[in-house]
Design goal:
6 helices; Four Helix Bundle (Hemerythrin (Met), subunit A); mainly alpha; single chain; two-stranded antiparallel ribbon
Length: 159
């Protein structure tokens, strides 16, 4: 597949993704970049380590900046704390050149990514039309009813 086709596919996926899918994609990107960081450290590629780690920090920073602390309440504050911790640890990668740091951060991010994937999947399922059972003594046709997918608390996607 050519680069242009792959880029078009990626753009289409982003444009049609639900908010929960977008968050899951961001977590997946951060994890991928941290794996690159880890691999670069192990292979002694300093510039690659720095570039991947910097990009991972940008993704985590973006996740932090899109938190809606007003509506997200305690969950948003806990996520903000976690993101702050991750950013502080990743800031040490270039100084310490320690592959254990990105490994640890991956272990923190994977359960969050998996939770957002589940939420996106359940939201997509909830958005599918479902038949409404007809009243027992009614001859009317059952009409499909749709339910909006759950809105993730603590996230602001308008920014």
């Amino acid at each position: 597949m050519s680069y242009a086709l792959a880029r078009n596919y990626q753009t289409q996926a982003l444009m049609t993704a639900s908010p929960a899918e977008l968050v899951a994609m961001l977590f997946e990107r951060a994890i991928h970049l941290l794996r690159e960081t880890e691999r670069a450290i192990e292979e002694g590629r300093i510039e690659a380590r720095h570039n991947a780690n910097t990009k991972a920090m940008e993704v985590i920073h973006h996740l932090d900046m899109t938190l809606d602390r007003d509506q997200g309440g305690e969950i948003a504050e806990q996520l903000a704390s976690l993101y702050g911790f991750i950013l502080r640890r990743l800031a040490e990668v270039d100084r310490l050149n320690d592959a254990e740091i990105p490994r640890d951060m991956i272990r923190l991010l994977e359960p969050l990514r998996d939770s957002w994937r589940t939420l996106a999947r359940e939201g997509a399922t909830a958005a599918q039309p479902r038949p409404v059972p007809a009243a027992p003594q009614s001859q009317s046709q059952a009409r499909p009813e749709t339910q909006a997918p759950p809105v993730p608390a603590g996230l602001n996607f308008s920014a």
